[in-house]
Amino acid sequence: RAAQGRAYGNLGNTHYLLGNFRKAVSSHEQRLLIAREFGDRSAERRAYSNLGNAFIFLGEFEMAAEYYKKTLQLARQLKDRAVEAQSCYSLGNTYTLLQDYEKAIEYHLKHLAIAQELRDRVGEGRACWSLGNAYTALGNHEEAVHFAEKHLDISRELGDRN
Amino acid sequence: FQRLRIIQVDSVRRWMDDLKLMTECE
User: Fold this and answer.
1) Nearest CA of chain B to the CA of A10: how many Å?
2) Residue B4: pLDDT above 50?
């Protein structure tokens, strides 16, 4: 049964990489059931992430947000700060797709705080880029400029000419 | 406004480009 769970996870990932997102969802749902059976919270967390990602490409952003929230909750329980940061970044982007910019900002700020704590300059740069865009969408140009300048500083530091 | 909308989508598009190859492996 444990091997079956891993096989479902691998199948889900393969369908995902092939662009078969419905099949990816079915496989990851099976993987999730088996992870729960075993109380394997890491596998459960991975299944939530994979399901969130697949729902993004299915255009079902509300479903993606629900799974990313479950990922975030488990990442906190498992005390995995890197995964917590990644979940916040995914939620920020998903709420941008949903055009809910206040919520997008809320999650991008959380991502920024963790990226700073982890001294992840690439993550910090991406958070600032995203925040600049979200504040622009809200017409808050002062905050938008603030984050655009931070993004510029970090991009220069990293030698990211693009 | 239209140009800002395009910029706004860009950071999300970059994320989605990365996401295409992002799988949590067993």
Assistant:
1) 7
2) no
